[in-house]
Design brief:
Blueprint: H1 20-23, H2 26-34, H3 40-47, E1 66-74, H4 81-89, H5 95-102, E2 115-123, E3 128-135, E4 138-140, E5 143-144, E6 150-152, E7 156-159, E8 164-168, E9 174-177, E10 182-189, E11 197-211, E12 220-225, E13 230-233, E14 237-243, E15 246-251, E16 255-259, E17 267-270, E18 273-277, E19 287-288, E20 294-297, E21 307-311, E22 318-324, E23 332-338, E24 342-344, E25 352-361, E26 367-377, E27 379-380, E28 388-394, E29 397-403, E30 411-417, E31 426-431, E32 435-438, E33 445-454, E34 457-458, E35 465-467
Helix pairs in contact: 4-5
Length: 468
Amino acid sequence: MSTHINDEAHTVISRASAPLALLLPGVRHAMRHVGASLPCALLATLVGFSAANTTVYAQTDTAEDVQRFIRTITIRPGDTLTHIALRELGDEARAREIADLNGLGINDILKPGDALQIPGELPVRDEFARVLFTKGFVQINGNAAQPDDELRLNDAIETGATGYASLTFESGTLINLHPNTLARIVTLHCQSQDDTCVIEMATDKGQLTTDVRRNRSQPTDFRVQTPYASAAVRGTVFDIDADDNGLRIGVTEGAIALSTEEDNQGVELDTGFGSVNAPGAPLGEPIALLPAPVFRYVPPRIATGDTLRWFGLTETPRYTVQIAASPNGVGIAYDTSVTADAFTLEDDIPIGDYSVLLRAIDINGLRGFTATSPITVALTDVSLPEVNTSIAREAGNFRVRVEGAPENIQGFEIQLATDEDFSDPVSVDVDATGDAIVRVGSDSLFARSRILMSRTVVGPYGPAAQVE
């Protein structure tokens, strides 16, 4: 299910203080050949942004018909810059270029295991990412975006305070943009005939969840540039969250190499680890991510006022709960955070089949692993009558019966619990007879019922019955 509602008046603003090389990383390489004493106006023209605040639109600098990008390698024992230039670029004379890029002297001794940035060039072609989903305020280059729109090299996409968007690339790589996110494609070379799919995104602010995939066993070289660090992805599923407080990144599948221009040591993040990086500080050390919570009660359907529960994790300040059209987070219909180990649906959302995505967030703001479960969203029809429920003991079991059922209904949903607050319930669907035999490990039982007009239309719960 895809929707697009342009519900906010919002302008994408660039700041003169923003790292220009972040927004168009290839410029760093070009500046080395132009000189460092360019006037500000000329620098802004080359980068594609004016020095004053302005609306961000697409900038396509294709004079050389190449797009420059940077990849990260790991230094091997015995490596020198000359060896690396010959091996990686086919020209040992480019050792000086690698040295300048990494802030090294041409004869510096390299330490095996350290990260090293390598420049690259790719042709500019007419290729694009496709918009899968939009919700709320989403714009591409200042224009309202909607599903099936195309995002090309140097295009900018932004979401507002209620905006969500999902992008897919030819390789199958998926990027979900959450509210208040600004991102740009700065390198794109990802067609089926390419030996390697190369994708580079830049994000000045916001939150991305990314699932990097391979198509036809084609390797994917994926990188994200932020104002604080560059993340080279050697894996698949990870989160990036950048704001004025710094960068938070977590890896739930695969591995990521973090690096900055000031620190060529880098930080490796393997599956299950994240990092918190403050502005101007050294890269943060790996932090273990929280495990996926375990669901305690997922109802057969959830309507406004219904509750979902899970077993709480210790030292977890909050959880995020998303209801989405798919388990990879595409098609967000509902998104909230809670501090308890339960979530009550407070707003109406379109009926249908969804996935619920549950994550714990630690004290550092890092998101943990995701628990997912299918869930059906239903509508409560308040015009339907409430029904009464009775409970009777019968040969060591309990007979639960719905009383006074109207005609022409599909059946009932009966909710059972051992306490009157229904804090740990079990729900069962029964046919129109409204009759069920149950056995529970308790001498006390509470039950309440509601009408099922269909799988996705229910009535309100009636009063609870009790047997002690």
